[in-house]
Amino acid sequence: MAVFGNNQQQQAAPRPFDISKLENQNRSFIQRLGRFSVLEYRCDMSVAPGNAVSEYFMSKMGVRRRQVVIQLNQSAGAVLQAGAMQWTLGNIDMTTGIKGAGDLFGKMMRGAVTGESAIKPEYVGTGVVVLEPTHKHIILQNVATWGPGGMVVEDGMFLACDATVQHRLVARSSVSSALGGGEGLFNLALAGSGVVALESNVPYEELIEIDLVNDTLKIDGHMAVAWSSTLQFTVERSGKTLIGSASSGEGLVNVFRGTGKVLMSPVAATYSLGAAAYNVSEKA
Question: pLDDT higher for 191 or 97?
Fold first, then answer.
């Protein structure tokens, strides 16, 4: 078992290796859930004179480098977005996680319609997996707390999860309205048990959580980060008629109906920081 942090009880346990100086005065763990931890760089010292000023003010505004650290054991592996791994330590192997031709076809379909990588590598064994740094915020969620149906996430947010988490596609209830609203036809749904790590432009503390009980939520724009798979999701006109929609100035809106939960960004669309924030596909 790998050991890091300041947990004295963990440090007293026998282990084949230690990781020292993973935390220091400039970086520390800010969040833990299950086997997942988030390491944040309060002050990034790996800068050059040309970008020192911008890095300084970025850190003051909370735009900081963050890394996900996963402790693996023999009980279950971890599934990562392709290209997300930075380094591993211990007896760890990487597999494709493909269980046959049908499974390969399903993964390719999910990748094609959600914007995620078609083949997500699965890391198994005993040790530590450290992911590439990102300037986006990391949201850790226990998938089981979203109910038997699990959760649906916005395209491009998936970073990693326990191998016990199930992946599937969910289709929009209205194909024509999805196309008209500039949305995709499908989203990635996660169910079962385990932890998922999501990349978000907005910190979890700033997200608005709305619980619906046989009710309706309408959102103008790409503001929803995640929602219960039990909710019916469509893209519709804001008014009952074309004239009414045009006069309201809203046009098309995202509509969630039923009973479940929605995590919503308060001000910024989910894609708005894509050009400014480093992520797996835009490594620094």
Answer: 191
Residue 275 lies in a domain: no
166, containing H or E segment: strand 165-171
Q: Which of 207, 227, 219, 211 is nearest to 251 (CA)?
A: 219
> Is the pLDDT at 101 greater than 50, yes or no?
no
Q: Which pLDDT belongs to residue 234?
A: 85
Asked if residue 280 belongs to a domain, the reply is no
Q: Which of 153-162, 175-184, 271-280 has maximum average pLDDT?
A: 153-162
**Considering its fold, how many domains does the chain have in total?**
1
DSSP code for 223: -
Pair 3, 19: CB distance under 8 Å: yes
Among residues 145, 134, 6, which one has the least CA distance to residue 58?
134
Name the token pair of 111.
């990748």
Range of the domain at 251: 8-264
- Contacts of residue 155, defined as CB under 8 A and 6 or more positions apart, other chains included, come to 114, 115, 116, 184, 187, 188
Residue 273 lies in a domain: no
Rounded CA gap, 253 and 236, in Å?
A: 6
- Partners of 24 in the β-ladder: none
184 pLDDT tier (thresholds 50, 70, 90): low
Kindly indicate the confidence band of residue 12, based on its pLDDT and cuts at 50, 70 and 90. Answer: very low
Q: Write the CA distances from 230 to 18, 29, 251, integer angstroms.
A: 43, 33, 26
Q: How far apart are the first and last CA of the chain?
A: 30
